[in-house]
Design brief:
The complex is a heterodimer of chains A (533) and B (340).
Chain A lengths: L1 H11 L4 H14 L2 H11 L10 H12 L3 H11 L2 H8 L14 H9 L7 H14 L2 H11 L9 H12 L3 H8 L7 H7 L16 E5 L13 E7 L2 E8 L2 E6 L10 H7 L6 E9 L7 H8 L6 H6 L2 E11 L2 E2 L5 H14 L6 E3 L2 E2 L4 H10 L5 E8 L7 E11 L3 E12 L8 E10 L2 E8 L5 H13 L1 E5 L2 E4 L4 E6 L1 E4 L7 E4 L2 E5 L11 H9 L3
Parallel strand pairs in A: 1-11, 6-8
Antiparallel strand pairs in A: 2-9, 2-10, 3-4, 3-5, 5-6, 6-7, 10-11, 12-13, 12-16, 12-17, 13-14, 15-16, 17-20, 18-19
Chain B lengths: L1 E4 L2 E4 L4 E3 L7 E3 L14 E5 L3 H8 L5 E4 L4 E4 L2 E7 L7 E7 L2 E5 L21 E6 L11 H17 L3 E5 L5 H8 L8 E3 L1 H12 L8 E2 L13 E4 L15 E6 L6 H6 L4 E3 L7 H11 L3 E7 L1 H10 L3 E4 L12 H7 L3
Parallel strand pairs in B: 3-4, 4-5, 5-6, 10-11, 11-18, 12-15, 12-16, 13-14, 13-15, 16-17, 18-19
Antiparallel strand pairs in B: 1-2, 2-3, 7-8, 8-9, 9-10
The chains are: A alpha+beta (533), B alpha/beta (340).
């Protein structure tokens, strides 16, 4: 645990990617395989399910530190992170009972995971013992683990790079071995860095190929007829994998979601063995439904017949990555697309696969017309892919571009602010915005991003001096600062006071040139419901 | 005895102010940090220990009367005594006694030992006016020996890699405490920013033993900084002054570094928790030791401390000091305000 805490501190205290990779590589090269396995698991974003309700843990910490709950809340507001608040709040541990000498896998397997089957009283005793034994970073990490909130600023890609550096195995091979459900055991770690293991898990997806936003004019891309244009859909990017007679569905977020989409699993039976399709899971009834419909479905624990009938999904198929068990990612797009069309057509009976429609391009004006029309189709723009392009790894510039539609835009007034979390814990970075309705201001959106650090500091200072009321951490401020907000979608919503919900709101500009009188009205926002921009 | 006015804490009986934020006729100064020792008053009363530093801050023209710790002055029946506060060189608590009633204004203080100033002394009083900069239970300082050992280890590791080590610390107080903490470390040369060097000279002239330093500005062009320790005020961060150091690891020494978010927001390589203020347990212990039944709480987490004390049965009251409008809960600004 000490060694892992040192690794965590080393990663956490540097902004240099090289230094992070070097620290991880050092760790992987020297740690016991059983410990290294858990380190791989945690560093690549794995986390055991939350083992104990957070409020219960907080309650024990308050008792142990003899701090009333209101003061605990104040501490939490100052720190912005519960695990850290508890770690700082408790009197220092005494390192008794030798627990701090335990290895990482010892901590995880003997102290952490058993919490799941303990009674509340046993959990309390185990957690208090750990707090008393640990100090500093180790205690913080323990809290992160029991609250299911451990994360560290490295990507799976960097973990793979560090493993490659430590083992001498190619980074791509490591990345593929890590895909899918990788379980942290000493054996699996040894296999991960072994020179030859062709033990590919059948469910394993390929890394997703991502596009950059289009820069400059379309004409700079060359001839329009060398490009394939498709709609850019706003759903869940996923790969559907058919191997050894079984179907698996992986999202771009790295989640195995096979059981969430029974209609796609059924359709998978119509796919030839050894096939992998990249596409977008979309709510669909004679065309795309709004993303909010899909969110209704994502939110459910169990999928009853009602929701399945109301929000059916399809896979809009973009690309074919594997055919007859062979990796075809380096074939030209045009050829992959032809094979994809054949497979989707053969599986057409299922109705759950839709071949991603192609927008015919004679010249770039065709692309411009389609782009202008995107929103009426519930698409968020166009994808442009070179017909001879391969399916790459990660995000690359050159052969694939995304061209999103202009976002919706309104000028809104800031009415509330509260401190952010983590890096932004001591600054007010979460803002609520309102629009005019007669003489009143109606809050309609929260936004967290879009300002520079300097603007955030300046705004924070302004907020502190112009607070008119406080509700816990939330400050009501004088309604005078105007911001240009952008968002991607808009929907009626009975759950929101304003009656509308906007998607992906963010700050485009701090309009210091405008006053609250210049802000937009709720009527203007409601007008956007009917008329897409 | 004291009341809050728009110029600061005022003692009517003796017609004097403690750390006023507007010019007044007579100001008693707890210590030389910019938010406590302001310009423009007619007469100042301060501790002899901090005389030199205060002179640098207030200028040659200021009329400053210096008194020893423990030595009393009586003005219109009010007996005024300065008592060590342990915050920085010369920092004092102000004890006021009038017709048997005793009030103490703490100024900024810490109870940990510090080789660069006389240690804090608790004073029994009826009313205690305390700071609360770090008045939340998340602020518990680790032993300073550990922090200095970490700092020296960081410096040594950087030196082995051929890097310079740059630590940001308030020019007055924290910088010198670090220079005392690394005296005799024998890792490499110690360089200073001009703002630090001037006050460091004042400390030496006041008899404080510090590591030998050279101002960066006086070094010949082309000096290599590999292996050196550079002490600079936080305001130097992000300035062109840094370019000359080449490969450099940066750190900040402050109590705020206790919280991970504060460390990360500054994009520093290291944060060393080193404060010249009391932490939570020391704050409560200090208040206890005064025996005061009335406690006024000034800048910092005053509302929180007041509520906590009130729940323990004390008469606690929150006193808004003038300077905190922009920096309450805002270390990024509060840190730098101490630099003036």
């Amino acid at each position: 645990m000490k060694q892992f805490a040192r690794l965590y501190s080393a990663i956490d205290s540097t902004t240099s990617t090289n230094a992070k990779v070097a620290a991880m590589a050092d760790y992987f090269a020297s740690a016991e395989p059983a410990d290294a396995a858990w380190a791989v698991y945690f560093l690549s974003g794995g986390r055991p399910k939350r083992l104990i309700p957070v409020r219960r843990i907080a309650g024990w910490a308050m008792e142990e530190a003899q701090v009333p709950d209101w003061l605990f809340d104040e501490c939490y507001h100052a720190v912005g992170d519960l695990a850290e608040t508890i770690a700082l709040l408790l009197p220092s541990g005494d390192g008794a009972n030798g627990a701090d000498a335990l290895s990482l896998h010892g901590w995880v397997e003997r102290r952490l995971l058993p919490l799941a089957t303990m009674t509340e009283e046993e959990q309390r005793a185990a957690v208090l013992a750990a707090w008393r034994a640990l100090a500093g970073t180790e205690r913080y990490l323990w809290n992160k683990l029991i609250t299911g909130s451990f994360r560290v600023g490295v990507s799976e890609q960097l973990v793979a790079r560090a493993l490659a550096k430590a083992s001498g195995i190619d980074e791509g091979v490591i990345a593929h071995r890590l895909g899918g459900h990788w379980t942290p055991t000493a054996e699996n770690f040894s296999a991960l860095v072994a020179a030859d293991s062709r033990d590919a898990d059948v469910s394993r997806p390929f890394p997703f190929y991502l596009a950059y936003a289009l820069e400059g004019e379309l004409e700079s891309l060359g001839e329009a007829r060398e490009w394939q244009a498709e709609w850019k859909w706003d759903g869940i990017r996923a790969q559907i994998i058919r191997r050894d007679g079984r179907t698996y569905i992986w999202t771009r977020g790295g989640e195995l979601v096979t059981d969430r989409y029974p209609e796609l699993v059924d359709a998978g039976d119509h796919l030839p063995d050894g096939a992998v399709i990249d596409g977008e899971i979309m709510p669909w009834k004679n065309g795309a439904l709004p993303f909010a419909q899909l969110q209704r479905r994502i939110g459910r624990k169990t999928l009853g017949p009602k929701i399945l009938a109301e929000v059916p999904v399809v896979l809009v198929a973009y690309d074919l990555l594997e055919l007859n068990g062979r990796d075809v990612r380096t074939m030209p797009l045009a050829e992959r697309r032809a094979e994809l069309a054949r497979i989707v057509e053969a599986a057409a009976l299922s109705c759950a696969f839709v071949l991603s429609p192609v927008v015919p391009l004679v010249d770039w004006d065709d692309a411009r017309r389609a782009h202008a029309d995107a929103r009426t189709r519930r698409a968020e723009g166009l994808m442009l892919k070179r017909l001879d392009s391969e399916y790459g790894v990660g995000r690359r510039k050159g052969s694939w571009w995304k061209w999103k539609v202009q976002p919706y835009s309104v000028d809104a007034v800031m009415v509330y602010a509260q401190p952010g979390h983590g890096r932004r814990a001591l600054l007010h970075t979460d803002y609520t915005f309102a629009l005019k309705e007669g003489d009143a201001l109606v809050p309609f959106a929260k936004a967290y991003s879009g300002l520079t650090d300097a603007e955030i500091r300046a705004l924070d200072s302004w907020i502190r001096r112009h607070t008119i009321d406080r509700f816990g951490p939330v400050r009501q401020v004088e309604p005078v600062q105007v911001f240009e907000l952008h968002f991607e979608g808009i929907q009626k919503s009975p759950r929101h006071k304003s009656g509308v919900a906007v998607r992906f709101p963010r700050i485009a500009r701090w309009r210091t040139d405008k006053t609250a009188d210049d802000a937009d009205t709720m009527d203007a926002l409601r007008a956007m419901l009917e008329a897409p921009v | 005895m004291l009341r809050l006015t728009d110029r600061g804490l005022y003692c009517e009986a003796a017609d004097l102010y403690v750390d006023p934020w507007q010019p007044v006729d007579r100001a008693v100064i707890t210590h030389a940090h910019g938010d406590h020792a302001r310009w423009g008053s007619k007469r100042y009363l301060a501790s002899r220990e901090g005389g030199r530093v205060l002179r640098t801050r207030l200028g040659e023209e200021a009329s400053i009367e210096l008194v020893e710790f423990g030595e009393s002055r009586t003005i219109d029946g009010v007996s005024i005594t300065l008592v060590p506060a342990g915050h920085i060189l010369g920092s004092a608590q102000v004890r006021l006694e009038h017709r048997g009633e005793v009030w103490v204004v703490s100024g900024d203080y810490k109870t940990e030992p510090d080789p660069t100033c006389t240690p804090f002394e608790p004073v029994r009083c009826h009313t205690f006016i305390t700071e609360s900069t770090f008045g939340l239970p998340i602020y518990r300082w680790c032993a300073q020996e550990e922090t200095f050992a970490d700092l020296r280890a960081w410096w040594r590791d950087n030196a082995i890699e051929g890097r310079a080590s740059l630590v940001y610390a308030y020019a007055l107080g924290k910088a010198q405490r670090i220079l005392a903490g690394v005296a005799g470390a024998d890792i490499g040369p110690v360089y200073t920013h001009g703002a630090v060097e001037r006050l460091t000279a004042d400390y030496r002239e006041s008899g404080i033993r510090l590591a030998a330093t050279t101002a960066v500005a006086t070094l010949p062009k082309g000096t290599s900084f590999a292996g050196s320790l550079i002490v600079a005020p936080p305001s130097a961060a992000g300035s062109p002054w840094l370019r000359r150091f080449g490969d450099v690891s940066t750190a900040f020494a402050s109590g705020w570094m206790q919280v991970r978010g504060a460390r990360r927001r500054r994009a520093l390589d290291r944060g060393f928790v080193l404060s010249d203020h009391v932490d939570w347990p020391a704050l409560l212990a200090a208040i206890d030791a005064t025996g005061a039944e009335d406690v006024w709480v000034t800048h910092g987490y005053r509302d929180q401390v007041v509520r906590f004390l009130a729940e323990r049965g004390l008469n606690a009251r929150s006193v808004a000091s003038h300077w905190e409008g922009e920096n309450d809960e805002q270390p990024a600004v509060a840190d730098e305000s101490a630099l003036a």
